[in-house]
Design a protein that fits this description.
20 strands, mainly beta, globular
């Protein structure tokens, strides 16, 4: 139900890096400083990664819907391995006007997650080159910032994230695949040691009609607009300040909270529903929706000379007074959602230590209907008992969607939640972890780390096996990062499935799955 409720969080929230990587109230405008001439800054990275996925269907047969838990190779039903490799060139650009009061920023991704070996122009075994796909260039962000005497005003399409990135996430990490953006106008002002922010997001408008002269686009259904208003307050220290304070033996406390409200009065389903024949959008396609969603989120971080503890908690409430997607076919009972999620991260070890360890944990509320309901597409079939996924709401019989969903770019593991289920939803997990600097040399650091993730479902009926225990996963990593921007990571994972992933109907037990991934980074 992330599209139903969590979208209320898309309004104006985040923590991340500089330039167009700045995605929130704590870093927007932080690089606006006095200057005499126009200045341009560019940074980003080139990422190439490849992976081998082994037995991610767990050899436990098909679900009642006739599907494996994970796609299997064509041709040989006994085959186990699926391999792939992709790339991304990310460029963040910032242009600063003379005087140091105005900045314009953009993010452009080139060949974003494009598979190596794709877009061949000829018969596969005769191809000698690759063509550029139609979506080779993706402008993901473009916005402006202006420093005024009373605060900072920003407007445009910008990244959106908050706290740990558990619910809304800017997708700024090296391995991220998604990332939230918002068309937003926001005003930020410092007062009494805090950052106060108010933002308005335009989530969706249309349908449109072009109107001469100039082919101006006219919004034909203003009542169908999706809007979000967010109010937030934070007390925050940037990374450099926390490092300095930690080295000086000082404890740093950061925290924040927000409330966000999203609404839509009417809707035009014909603009987004998949249909066999194109639909002529007219006034007859307009129907009542009555959508409202409110989100509350709290985040806190304690940075001590010997440890860091960070936590986020969110509660989401939503209702759709008219859940029907077909004009003329109406339901009397609204669909509602009450969801809750929480995440904890910790790391213990003195500043500069070669060794550190910690415990992470998380909870995402579930819904008692079958399946996990992760990232359900429009018009998805209902989940049957034993299915992994499927639609949750089934009006007028089942009218709640209470499964909280973590953002898919908030990584907890590498196989179960990230690949098989799709995200953390309807589950609880514990994740002890440790790392050690194997080698420190002048250019960089070689680091080894390992994490173990134990997980179980909130409701047994969500799982394919009808039991709560899901599995135990071990994720080791060997990574090298240099100060000149080069990075190399070797990742492995093995999932030991438990009863929740078995196939009791076919009397089949789930077998372990494995993953191996290599990632090469070139930063500039």
């Amino acid at each position: 139900m992330r599209a139903l409720v969590a979208a209320a969080l898309g309004g104006a929230l985040a923590l991340a890096e500089s330039l167009a990587g700045a995605t929130g109230f704590t870093d927007i405008g932080e690089d606006i400083v006095p200057r005499t001439d126009t200045a341009v800054r560019v940074n980003g990275y080139m990422r190439v990664r490849g992976e081998d996925l082994y037995n991610l269907d767990l050899d436990r047969g098909l679900t009642p819907s006739g599907k494996p838990l994970f796609p299997v190779p064509f041709g040989d039903p006994r085959a186990q391995a699926i391999t792939d490799a992709d790339m991304r060139l990310r460029t963040d650009v910032a242009v600063y006007a003379p005087g140091g009061m105005v900045a314009v920023k953009a993010r452009v991704d080139v060949l974003d997650n494009v598979q190596l070996g794709s877009n061949a122009p000829d018969i596969p075994n005769e191809a000698t080159t690759q063509l550029s796909p139609a979506s080779a260039f993706r402008v993901k962000r473009a916005y402006g910032e202006a420093l005024t005497p009373v605060g900072l005003l920003t407007a445009g399409r910008m990244g959106s994230a908050w706290g740990l990135g558990m619910l809304t996430n800017g997708g700024d990490c090296a391995d991220c695949n998604y990332g939230d953006v918002a068309d937003r106008v926001a005003f930020l002002a410092p007062a009494v040691g805090h950052i106060w922010a108010l933002a308005y997001d335009i989530g969706q408008i249309g349908p449109f009609q072009t109107q001469p002269p100039g082919n101006t686009a006219v919004n034909l259904a203003p009542s169908a607009n999706v809007s979000t208003v967010t109010f937030a307050v934070l007390k925050f220290h940037d990374d450099l300040a926390r490092v300095r304070r930690r080295a000086a033996g000082k404890t740093t406390v950061d925290y924040g909270a927000y409330v966000s409200h999203r609404w839509q009065n009417d809707d035009v389903p014909g603009t987004y529903l998949p249909t066999a024949q194109p639909i002529v959008v007219s006034s007859t396609q307009l129907m009542a929706r009555g959508y409202e969603a409110t989100a509350f989120d709290g985040w806190a971080r304690i940075t001590h000379p010997y440890f860091r503890v960070e936590a986020e908690w969110a509660a989401l409430f939503a209702s759709i007074q008219q859940p029907s997607l077909v004009p003329g076919i109406l339901y009397r009972t609204p669909v509602t959602g009450r969801q809750m999620g929480a995440a904890l991260e910790s790391e213990f070890g003195p500043e500069g230590s070669r060794f550190a360890a910690g415990l992470d944990a998380g909870y995402a509320s579930g819904d008692p209907s079958p399946g996990f309901g992760a990232n359900v597409a429009v018009n998805s079939a209902l989940a049957q008992p034993g299915d992994l996924n499927g639609a949750k709401a089934n009006p007028p019989f089942h009218t709640t969607v209470d499964n909280f969903q973590f953002h898919p770019d908030y990584f907890v593991d590498r196989i179960l939640f990230r690949e098989i289920i799709g995200t953390v939803t309807g589950a609880v997990y514990a994740r002890p972890h440790a790392r050690v600097d194997v080698l420190r040399v002048a250019p960089g650091v070689l680091q080894a780390s390992v994490a173990a993730i134990a997980s179980m479902a909130v409701y047994p009926q969500n799982t394919p096996g009808g039991q709560a225990p899901l599995g135990v996963e071990i994720d080791p990593t060997l990574a090298y990062a240099s100060r000149d921007g080069f990075g190399l990571a070797l990742e492995y994972a093995v999932l030991f499935p438990l009863a929740g992933l078995d196939n009791p109907v076919a009397h089949l037990h789930a077998f372990p799955a494995q993953l191996a991934r290599v990632r090469v980074m070139y930063r500039f």
